[in-house]
Amino acid sequence: MAASIIDGKAVAARVRAEVATEVERFVAEFGRAPGLATILVGDDPASAVYVNGKQKASAEVGIQGFDHRLPADASEDEVIALIERLNADDDVSGILCQLPVPDHMDGVKLTGLIDPYKDVDGLTPLSAGYLALGREGLRPSTPEGVMILLDEAGAQLEGAEAVVIGRSNLFGKPMAQLLLKSNATVTTCHSRTRDLPGVCRRADVLIAAVGRARMVKADWVKPGAIVIDVGTNRLEDGLSGDVAFDEVSDVASAITPVPGGVGPMTIACLLRNTVKAARLAAHSGATV
After folding, report:
1. Per-residue pLDDT averaged across 72-84, rounded?
2. Active-site residue among 64, 115, 119, 121?
3. What are the beta bridge partners of residue 119?
């Protein structure tokens, strides 16, 4: 039986509608809208598309947009000065430094300088620490979006075996932490994992995020598993995920497509984080 398709576009649209309502409430309560500042250094076309999409989505839900673009030859000190200025700006609720940055800059260092209470990407050491400790905080948008999609698919995570392929700071590590918080038993796989297909076949929930087109085959998947494909790979025949969608769909119970699965959730959760950060800042003494 073919897997049911987890419609990320539809779920993201619902999240955005909820955010728009929250923005209206915030404006009514505080007399101003939350604000999202994006920083783009250089002229990478893909990064420009991502930032344009984030700014457009912000405007659609009523969030103020602050779009900062610097040339590729800008100095790291210029970016640091901009981050410090945005940290001190009360109109800015959230700050996002688009990665990757040019080679002469340290992206980890720059994102670490963002005020943790404006860290809508969930990448500062404080945000990562709160997540690891199971405390409330601003979570990375893509893993948070995956959790919403798993709920949409009816995943019963408590006691389930979950396998995450990929251990990046951006996705793999925070994804594993969120699954642990939901009482799943989690295995994080990577390039040194022995018998990767065998490990994947144990999974009730299989999440692929490595950037290798159609790597996960049908015989890697436990019959009836829920499969979440986070990969986006540009091929001659269009976009493809890390999962061989057509063949895995015959084995899994539910699966996300590429495009139209996880991707739309990232921006939707970024917007939700921006409103959450605005509320934290608006209430004196509030903590993440």
Report:
1. 97
2. 121
3. 95
Residue 177 among the catalytic residues: no
Set out the domains of the chain in order of their start, with CATH numbers: 30-116 (3.40.50.10860), 141-264 (3.40.50.720)
Tokens found for residue 254: 């539910």
CA–CA distance, 53 with 1 (Å, rounded to integer): 36
Residue 139 has pLDDT above 80, yes or no: yes
**Annotated catalytic residue 9:** no
For the beta carbon of residue 211, count every other beta carbon within 10 angstroms.
Answer: 14
pLDDT over threshold 50, residue 250: yes
Q: Does residue 123 contact residue 107 with C-beta atoms inside 8 Å?
A: no
Cα separation, 87 vs 116, in Å, equals: 9
Catalytic annotation, pick one of 55, 64, 98, 177: 98
At 136 the pLDDT is 86
**DSSP 8-state secondary structure symbol assigned to residue 216:** B
Active site residue 98: yes
Q: Give the integer Cα–Cα distance in Å for 115 and 93.
A: 10
From the list 54, 118, 173, 222, the catalytic residue is 54
Round to whole Å and give the CA distance between 149 and 256: 9
**Per-residue DSSP letter, 97:** E
